[in-house]
Amino acid sequence: MVVLRTELVATGGTTTGIEVPEDVVLAFERGKRVPVVVTLNGGHTYRGSVASYQGGYWVGVSAAHRAAAGIEAGEQVDVELVVDDEPRTADVPADLAAALAAGGPDVSAAWARLSYSKQNAHVLAVEGAKTDATRARRVAAVVAALAPSR
């Protein structure tokens, strides 16, 4: 575990991040992209990754995380970083899970092979639909993308 007091930096547009010193990243002994659990100001906790960005190492802090922690760009924050060894799994909505199962074992296996990030991108696309028709189309598109070519 590492605790830092640092500035929440505006990194362009509406994005913000926390720069992590290189010696901290190297001390994790996990390479240069380290999955971490981030705690901001002793309260709000989320899962993220330390990643190389613009010549340094950064953890992104989304607008949702800033709001939950009650912080804004330019403020000093207390940051706790703990290496995250837990597997990351996407929270698959029921309609998508049913469609994946109905797609057969090849579709289910293809879904299981996707990285957490790719699974989560599909989940966010489905959940971001504003109408039931759009949601159904997006669910069908996920299944079609995973189905074996014929």
TrEMBL record:
Superkingdom of the organism of origin: Bacteria
Segments forming a coiled coil: none
InterPro entries, A to Z: AF2212/PG0164-like_sf (IPR037079), DUF1905 (IPR015018)
Protein name per Swiss-Prot or TrEMBL: DUF1905 domain-containing protein
UniProt organism field: Cellulomonas triticagri
